[in-house]
Structures are given as structure tokens and as C-alpha cells.
Amino acid sequence: MSGKPLLIFGSAEIAELAHFYFSHDSGYDIVGFTVDDAYVEADTFCGLPMVPWSEARTRFGPETHACHVALSYMKLNRLRQAKFEQVKAAGYRLPSYICSKSVSWPDLQMGENCFILENQTIQPTVKLGDNVMLWSGNHIGHGTHIGSHTYFASHVVVSGHCRIGERCFFGVNATLRDFLKVGDEAFIAMDASLTKDVEAGSVVLGSPGTVFGPDDPKGRKIRNNYFGLDD
Predict the structure, then answer these.
(1) Shortest CA distance to 169 belongs to which of 45, 74, 71?
(2) What is the 3-class SS of 101-116, one letter each residue?
(3) pLDDT digit string, tens, across residues 146-165
(4) CA dist 59 to 23, 50, 96, Å?
(5) Where exactly does CATH 3.40.50.720 map onto the chain?
(6) Residue 134, Cβ neighbours under 10 Å: how many?
(7) Fewer Cβ close by (within 10 Å): the C or N end of the chain?
């Protein structure tokens, strides 16, 4: 083992991808995986130990190991946030990953546990909160701030100086005009075109975007069905 030891929290597709990217493009060595005890289904994952969370601090303690939470956007990123906070409260450092095949600048400000894949264009003076996930091929315009626990699918275009809240979801090929404000837990669907500010909890569909506010029954049904919520 030549790199820094890293434990991954997760046991599904995102965890498998985190294992691949950290293994091939970082200074970390993956030593094992962990999930909450009730979700342990096997002793190994990706050929490495799968450790119940109740045993993680004993076998791979925070004094010597970092931990990366690798979970999907289900529950509109609330689960990812909860597990991020659980791991942080246990004393672990949560490293971020940014692919070497992306473009960014030295002034990029990024929180903990971000997961940023290849072919991004991240322009100057961008700020990312904690636990932000950017899938491949996005454009993040200059001066944009993205709140914690937000998820971007691929090929999203965010123009300059946008302010995006926490726990948002942006689908493939979504587009945002410059200087927009997007509230917390907004769902910007695939191919949506956003030209005006939206409130927290809004749903935006289509191009030009049709906006369903947080109290619109249709919007709430769409959001709850897609993310498995019961709001």
C-alpha cells in the first residue's frame, strides 16, 4: 500500500464507481467498504472487506483512515446528507475527488466529500459546498456557487454567477441562464431550460421550462415519485 488509506461508505453502483476512480486517479488506497449494519449483504465488495458500520471505527479507525460517502441521489439527496453527517460525526475526514481529466482553476473552492467526474469545465471563482456530485461533462460558469449535497447528472450547462441551493437535482442536459437563484431541494428535470429564479422545492420541466412551485400538487407528486419521498 503506497497511498493514503480510504474506506468507502456504500455497497452499490456509486460505491463501485468511487472505488474505480479513487483507485486509478488519486493518492488513496481503498482498504474496504462499510454500510449500516442492516444493509450488509456479503463479506466483500469489489474484492475488499465489507464491514458493518458498528465495526468500522475498530477496524478502520478515523485516526488512520479517511472515509468517502458514495451514495446516490435517492430521497432527493437527503440520505447522502445524513450519511455524510454520520461519518463526519464519527471523526472521519471525508476527502473529495476531482477527476484529472476535468478542467478547473486554482481558485476553485470545494467542500468535503465532493465527487467530480471527467470532462467538466469549471470556470474561475466557482464555489462548491460539501458532498456535491457532478457527473461527467458539465459546464459550471464563472462565479457560480453550488450548495451542499446537490447532484448534477451529465451535460448540464450553468451560466455565470448562479446561486444554487442545497440538495438540488439537475437532470441530463438541463440549462440555466446566468445570475439565476435556485432554492433548496429544487428538481430541474432532464432537458429543462431555466430562465428565471425558482423557489425551494420547485420542479422545472421542459424547454422553455414549466415551473411547478413547492405547493403545486402536480409538482409535489412528480418530485415525490421520482425520489421516493413522502412529503
Answers:
(1) 74
(2) CCECCCCCEECCCCEE
(3) 999 999 999 999 999 999 99
(4) 20, 11, 22
(5) 4-70
(6) 25
(7) N
What CATH homologous superfamily does 4-70 map to?
A: NAD(P)-binding Rossmann-like Domain (3.40.50.720)
Residues forming CATH 2.160.10.10 domain(s) in the chain: 97-227
Per-residue pLDDT reduced to its tens digit, 206-216? 998 999 999 99
Cell of 187: 428538481
Pairing mode, strands 210-212 and 203-205 = antiparallel
197's grid cell? 429564479
Say what the pTM is. Answer: 0.96
Q: Identify the residue whose cell numbers are 461527467.
A: 136
Residue 34, Cβ density class (10 Å: 0-12 exposed, 13-18 middle, ≥19 buried): buried
Ordered DSSP codes for the chain: --SEEEEEE--SHHHHHHHHHHHHSSSEEEEEEEE-GGG---SEETTEEEEEHHHHHHHS-TTT-EEEE---SGGGGHHHHHHHHHHHHTT-----EE-TTSB--TT-EE-TT-EE-SS-EE-TT-EE-TT-EE-TT-EE-TT-EE-TT-EE-SS-EE-TT-EE-TT-EE-TT-EE-TT-EE-TT-EE-TT-EE-S-B-TT-EEETTTTEEE-TT-HHHHHHHHHHHT---
